[in-house]
Amino acid sequence: MLSIALPKGSLEEQTLMLFAQADLEVKKESRGYNPSINDPRISKVKILRPQEIPTYVSEGYFDLGIGGHDWIVESNADVVEVADMPYAKTGAGIMRLVVAVPEDSPIQKPEDIPAGSRVSTELPNVTRKYFEKLGIPVKISFSYGATEAKVPELVDIVVDLTETGSTLRRNRLRIIDTVLESTTRLMANKQSWADPEKRQAIEEIKTLLLGVMEARGKVLISMNVPEGKLEEIVAVLPALKKPTVSKLYNSDYFAIETVVEKSNVNILIPKLKAFGAEDIIELSLSKIIR
């Protein structure tokens, strides 16, 4: 029913992992040109350059695509951004398109950039609009990669995508402004979104993908608690909404279950034990569906 375009390159590994965890595993052929997903809602899968995906989805070659908001803006693609899925090549994260200058440059803010400066970027349309808004005429050249390496011999300024800024710093570049922030998006063709049958399938796939993302970094904690300690423990227990509490059969104990951040478990479990919780179990989660 649905044709889907998935990104290759830096987003590929994380995207394939996300789909696998959502029980939508992408199976590749030996050469990888025509992968498939064993799901009745999905008829075709292609893995393409992320720069191309918004345009192909907009033009109806695919019903659904995964790609960065930055490339949707750059290509001026007329698509429906169905869901924000903030993951990048190193995991969860937000990409920024930034303006960077040599660290020893006298330029401190965008307004200081001299007219006629040479600018290198992989997103020339977004960059052109940015400098037009500033009212600064510059010479923009398209970069095929390693944009940061072109300063200062070939260009004066770079407008580059970064997740942490570490590569720019290693190349002695200093960020002076952020042009836009971008996360990975689930995007749909407008006609497909307007089709009731396809929209239902898209919504179902979105539910699975977002369920995986919601579960990341969280675990389920269960424990048994004596009745006299119940209120005290519930008061210190984090939860998505409220913890689930049920009385154990023929006992003065209660069972408690709740979802908590994995990063806090090392502090939380000893505290729960000190407050009187017993039989504490920590379980990993694959999906949380709101």
Automatic annotation (TrEMBL):
GO biological process: L-histidine biosynthetic process
Coiled coil regions in record: none
Pathway: Amino-acid biosynthesis; L-histidine biosynthesis; L-histidine from 5-phospho-alpha-D-ribose 1-diphosphate: step 1/9
Catalytic activity: 1-(5-phospho-beta-D-ribosyl)-ATP + diphosphate = 5-phospho-alpha-D-ribose 1-diphosphate + ATP
Xref: Gene3D superfamilies: 3.30.70.120, Periplasmic binding protein-like II (3.40.190.10)
A molecular-function term among this protein's GO annotations: magnesium ion binding
EC number(s) on file: 2.4.2.17
Gene Ontology cellular-component terms listed: cytoplasm
Presence of keyword Glycosyltransferase: yes
Origin superkingdom: Bacteria
Main location, first listed in the record: cytoplasm
Domain Histidine biosynthesis HisG C-terminal: 215-287
InterPro entries: ATP-PRT_HisG_long, ATP_PRibTrfase_cat, ATP_PRibTrfase_HisG, HisG_C, N-reg_PII-like_a/b, N-reg_PII/ATP_PRibTrfase_C
Cofactor(s) this protein requires: Mg(2+)
Domain ATP phosphoribosyltransferase catalytic: residue ranges: 49-208
Pfam families per record: HisG, HisG_C
Function: Catalyzes the condensation of ATP and 5-phosphoribose 1-diphosphate to form N'-(5'-phosphoribosyl)-ATP (PR-ATP). Has a crucial role in the pathway because the rate of histidine biosynthesis seems to be controlled primarily by regulation of HisG enzymatic activity.
Protein name as catalogued: ATP phosphoribosyltransferase
Lineage of origin: Bacteria, Bacillati, Actinomycetota, Candidatus Aquicultoria, Candidatus Aquicultorales
